Amino acid sequence: MSGGSVVPIEEIGNIRPPPFVRLPDLVTVFVRRAERLEKLAPGHVLEGWLRFMAALSRAQHEALRRLPPGSMPGPDEIAAAREAQRPALESEHWQGDATWPAALDEILRIMAAVNKPAAAEAARASLAALDTEERAALVSRYLSFELGAGERGAAPYVAAALQLYWTRMAALLDPAAVGLRDDKTACPICGGPPVASVVSGAEGDSRSLRYLCCGLCQTQWNEVRIKCTACGSTKGIAYHHVDQGGTATDEPPARDTGERAKNGGPTVRAETCDECKTYLKILYREKDVGADPVADDLATLELDILASEAGYHRTAPNPFLILGET
CA 318, CA 193: separation in Å to the nearest integer? Predict the structure, then answer.
């Protein structure tokens, strides 16, 4: 046999497995998301919304430089969480920490100078006028999906501040301190649900790997392909996308391959499960290396509508689209 290379048998066991978690990179995560949103916006039916979200992502990046140190869980706390198979940074950690209010103040200050709809500016000004206790109560309602109709305009700003708060903490963790958890349906860092999953070849690895992506702290964690991320079933899995005519098409799992995505398949699909009737979007970075779980999710709301009409419901909402009570 010629034209290839042979791996010595003694080295086979030394091939490194893919990392279980990929922690966010604070230098790039929000800038790249802003760039992605700006690329997706022109000519999109939601162009104004996507441009607003791009400005909000840039505000998150700029606000990073002005945040106070904050409080991180100590090594003993992280070790205890690992032993108990709890998230390393449980979501209740925000209470009593001065970092998220500082993040919110900076984001509101930066966004004051951004050209935006009058309603978005009114929501920003109203949120800026709240005192500390009122803001904390609003955050509690946001995290519990209990926002009132009049508070929905504040949701993107609140989401941006909380996302910034948890993303920075996640980025400062030692990946080696994060333990494997039996429950892969939630983020191992903050316990949040995945906003989407991405498929890409790992560094130094030719295989197409899937990582679930936390919408709150931006951590990614490895999960096998062709498996429901909500109930764990491997039966009744299908992949749907919107074609150019605006209709939904589906594909069997056997065709969910990286090669298919490289050869012209859509960047975003909805992975549906007939066992629990849920879906989660899956992004193929082999098709578009710039695909971002939050940005591309926001730009493919038509896919959400079609999946909903077909009888499926999302496993969790995008953090920037939590509406609360009707």
Answer: 10
